[in-house]
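Predicting holo structure, calcium ion bound.
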Amino acid sequence: MAEGSRNKLVIMVILSTMLLVLFLLALHYVRGIQKLLYAEAKENISEIATQGAGRFTDAIQIRLGDAQKGALQLAYQCFSDTPDEVLEKRFLTFVENENRSGQCLIYSLAFPDGKAMREDGKLFDMKGELGFQRALEGVSSASEPFYSVYADLRILALYSPVVFGGQVRAVLRVAASIDCVYASFGQSSYRGHGQSYILSKTGRLIAGSASSKSNAPFSNFFDVLFEDLDAEDSVQALFDDMGQGKRGVTTLRLGKNAPAHLICYTPLGLDLDWYFVTIVPKKVILENSREVILRSTVLCGGVILLFFVGVFLFAHERSKNQAYILKLAFVDELTGLPNRNSLMEEKKTFSRKTQQSPYAMVVFDINNFKMVNESFGYKTGDKILCCAASVIEEEVDPDSELRARIGGDHFVLLLRYPNRDRVALEQRLRDLLNEISGMAEQNSLLSGSLSFACGVCPVAQGNLMDNRCYDYADIARKHVKGHSGSLIGFFEEEMLLAMQKEKEIELAMDKALADGEFQVYLQPKIDLQSEKLSGAEALVRWMRPGKGCVEPGFFIPLFERNGFVVKLDYAVMEQVCKQKRAWLDMGVPDQVISVNMSQYHLVHKDFVSTLETIAHKYNIAPETLEIEITESAFYSDAAAYTVMEAIKAAGFKLAMDDFGAGYSTLNMLRRMPLDVLKIDKQFLDESEASERTRTIISSIIHMAQSLGADVICEGVETLRQVEFLKGIGCKLVQGYFYSRPLPLWEFEEKYLGMRRAF
Ligand code: C2E
Ligand code: CA
Ligand code: CA
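Done. Tokens:
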């Protein structure tokens, strides 16, 4: 599984677990709230029951008080001899005066023998009533309720003795409708859903709720009680509690499959052993808490939502950051082209494409880009790279081809190579490179045009992925590097060998320089008129142990590419100065020796001062040293002129080497502070065949001489050439016709008349 999708799976699992945990927490929270609200409801209902019980007890006691008050009043109007009839009359008057509106009270008066008269005058016998008997003993009390046929009501009778002179003269009975008493304080709760009952200890219904919804569905409360499966409360516990006169709250069902109710039972405190019971459907209580739960749920949902919004925002921000990091990792910041990492990644997807149709890997860089940066500034260098990138973006199809800047001025392209048509691909590349150069020129980034070194390697089986394809294209690039103008090289096997050789040379060069393996040979310069020595050119040779003498053509181009030429040139300069010093010390006539200096020195600020230091070290007059710089360096840029002027200013002679090999114009010579113009061998070779070339050489010589510069022709090999040159007034020559470059001892012997000491 890919790293990315594994990470995604892990994140999904973590998020799902978090969601589950949050959900369980929310559930737990809601349950907690539900429990809390239920506990609160229990307390609330207890409170209602306690208040209800208190009020019912008060109501009964008020009525008992009324009875006692009546009995007292009657007792006041009574004497020991007051006849029963008078007492009866007074009783009737008392009843009439009593304000009993809405109290549902019926008064009766009984004499100790049991004869009794109701307030409506009806006579009856009270003897059998327990309260009457107790009243005769002087105790006020209430009766158990009973049904009165007369009033068609369930009655509670309250008995009070009418005591006169320490004797119970009569008994006053106040019969109160229980329901009326109950209704008088209007016991209702929970928006009419809560019901209250007065029950006996044994569960018998004494009075029902005043509520309109309270049609008591039982005559004995215990008959309808069943345990609620959700609650752990038991019917037995309620029995026990009520049996022992305890109060409590429980949850039971009213009916076998009926809904659960919250039941609160509170003893009334009268000596009647009655209970005030309040019941509220559990559903109602839960409904009450529903809003709170709803709010809590919304709150929890909100929190979960917020959490996930947070997670989403975090993930979004993270993916944005990742995209930014990816961009940093895969996009070249300067040009916006894909970078090396991107190339490596993309190659994987392109490997199949390259098996289906031909592709070629192209690697190119800008010649002398280092010099461009140093001479024109890094900003200009950056702009040139951006020009290259924008042309590449235009010309290279991002879907079917690859393009990347892999660092510095190195660009890599993977281009389609239809029919393996090399000419067509070369043309396409030339157009692309010309376009880059043209764009840089258009934007006035450079005074001249850019040139490129471009290497190509066709993609073959497997070589795209193992990077050989890139390596080979790069070898081809290096192969064409260092030559003037834009060159496109296709990889060939021989380049590999050359490359290996170069590697080997590079490994050996530093030690070779330290060990003195680089030796100076001198090629004499001949004055044509006198045919005598007129100075010499120092030419380096690498004396490789076991490999013999290696000519500079094999290593100088490589050293120019890797920069080692700078060190080598100074070493040659030092050997020359040292030799000159030795000759001077020996009294040998001083000779002007020319030393080749690569154009790569021109970018080094301390170039001229280093030359001066070396000359100074051996106390050599600078005018006896000639600095040869190839023609191509003279048209590079304005900074090169400055350096050449500095060479002149330091007193050295300045020679333009290989004139005629490149694109130098005669016009250019006018602006040059030259002492010597060296005409390239190639020019002389052509002069054999062409009259026109001879004319050109002749006019160059005259023009240079008229500008005050000496002219020397190199590569003079034949007498014909010598005579031709003499004929056109050339003064100095150098070539195999006179001498090859010679080791010092031989030069000394042949030209300085010195004998070798054995
Ligand atoms: P160059 O500066 O143009 O040197 C002249 C080259 O022409 C020398 O080759 C010399 O041996 C060769 N030559 C002279 N007369 C004749 C002739 O009559 N016929 C033919 N066919 N060749 C002739 P060499 O010594 O192999 O040097 C090759 C190049 O290597 C030099 O070309 C120069 O560019 C470079 N080089 C040699 N020594 C140094 C050095 O110390 N520093 C630097 N930077 N370059 C050097
Ligand atoms: Ca030279
Ligand atoms: Ca030359």
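The chain has a mean pLDDT of 86.
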